[in-house]
Amino acid sequence: KAGVTQTPRYLIKTRGQQVTLSCSPISGHRSVSWYQQTPGQGLQFLFEYFSETQRNKGNFPGRFSGRQFSNSRSEMNVSTLELGDSALYLCASSLARTPDSPLHFGNGTRLTVT
Amino acid sequence: KQEVTQIPAALSVPEGENLVLNCSFTDSAIYNLQWFRQDPGKGLTSLLLIQSSQREQTSGRLNASLDKSSGRSTLYIAASQPGDSATYLCAVRSTGANSKLTFGKGITLSVRP
Question: Which residues of chain B lie closer than 8 angstroms to A99, CB-CB?
């Protein structure tokens, strides 16, 4: 069974540009959540989707947005990139949105903003 | 607001040593606590998940305990090996309508041969 797949693995963008990251969950998983990981702040929750609906959102500005498609694949978009957006962006999927469902993470997309 | 703390940030031990990694959290209203491992440049691998009603979980050489009332969890690694070198993160899932995972910053473990 394939794991969580995130594309691309690496991205270099310039300040002011926008970027779209993609996440394909494990087959059968309907819940997808996104996290930002930086050395200073650690792992921070961005948002969570279940059956195409955003169920929860972290404390990030509106420049960060996401969506989930009917096949459970998810994308997140960051507009007007800032240097501080440089981070590892991780996606995780789980079988259900119940709290006891373990999360399975992808290997992340490393975004560098110059 | 839930806060998760892992101290120390880094640990170096000789191979074969038994070790304990600590995690503390401020709000005991949690569904569960999960321990993850992260290798450099990689995503997170789930090691153990402890439900709020449980006291501990075991998998191979790993044992995780949970004391919800005191806001503490420990991850015990028996007979450490160089392959255990990684960053270990704990995360708690809070209760409530907007349940989300809050992570500690992790402990970077180095096991010396």
Answer: 31-32, 93, 95, 99
